[in-house]
Amino acid sequence: MAVAPIRFDPQRAIELVLYVAGRLRYPTFHSVSKILYFADKEHLSRYGSLLSGDSYVAMKHGPVPSEIYNLLRAAAGRRESWISPRYYEVARGAIKVEGNYRLRALRAADTELLSASQQECLDASLKEYGSLSFERLTAKSHDLAWKAADENEIIDVRAIAKTLRNAKDVLAYLND
Predict the structure, then answer these.
(1) Whole-angstrom distance, CA of residue 151 vs CA of residue 33
(2) 33 near 69, Cβ under 8 Å?
(3) 80 contacts 73 by C-beta, under 8 angstroms
(4) Of the candidates 136, 154, 133, 123, which has an alpha carbon nearest to the alpha carbon of residue 16?
(5) Contact at 8 Å (CB) between 3 and 170?
(6) Residues 61, 134: Cα–Cα separation, whole Å
(7) Does pLDDT of 116 surpass 50?
(8) Whole-angstrom Cα distance, residue 42 to residue 51?
(9) Under 8 Å CB-to-CB from 43, ≥6 apart: which residues?
(10) Cα–Cα distance between 158 and 80 in angstroms, integer?
(11) 62 pairs with which residues across the strands?
């Protein structure tokens, strides 16, 4: 029996975004997405689940959390039929998109909605990857999981698990 995935919650997701955006010098769609990806990998390795329950899409510049990307597009005011109206509500008053992709947190993250394990993995990801350039983040995120998916397709969580130092244990847990 497979482990039940964490269900995506836009409110928790915006708190994850705010947590990261509030700690980066120049937060963008790209940098926040990559920090979340590396934090998700760490959380998967340590705790057997992803931070938000989001799915990653293999895009040109690396893995992108699908629903969080839509949440950021909502924050930018992009009206698209596939974006849930709830995303516009959650983003309003929390995050602003300046230009096309620069993010500005309008408030601090509500850390009461984030677990200690989530904050721990976000902090580890920020420490290791937070000062990297666009190019370095892109290169580091072009891992075997990203390569295993076609462009603009979902990256299977098992492909992400295979990139981890404890891949065998995580894969067994995911399949148990």
Answers:
(1) 16
(2) yes
(3) yes
(4) 123
(5) no
(6) 9
(7) yes
(8) 9
(9) 49, 50, 51, 117, 118, 121
(10) 30
(11) 59
Which residues sit opposite 103 in a β-bridge? 97
With residues binned 3-state (H G I as helix, E B as strand, rest as coil), the percentages for the chain, rounded to 5, are 50, 10, 35
Residue among 133, 127, 116, 75 at smallest CA distance from 99: 75
Query: Per-domain residue ranges for the chain?
Result: 10-175
Residues 168 and 147: their CA atoms lie apart, in Å, by: 19
Sign of CA dihedral 46, 52, 53, 56: negative
- Confirm whether pTM is higher than 0.90: yes
The residue to which tokens 């891992």 are assigned: 143
Q: Are 73 and 83 in contact (CB under 8 A)?
A: yes
Question: Residue 57 is inside which H or E element, if any?
Answer: strand 56-59
Phi-psi region of 108 (alpha: psi -120 to 50; beta: other; left: phi over 0): beta
As a whole number of Å, the CA-based R_g of the chain is 15
Structure token pair of residue 9? 């919650």
Contacts of 53 (CB under 8 A, 6+ apart): 5, 6, 7, 8, 9
- Give the pLDDT confidence score for residue 97 in this predicted structure: 96
pLDDT above 90 for 120: yes
At 3, the pLDDT band (50, 70, 90 cuts) reads very low
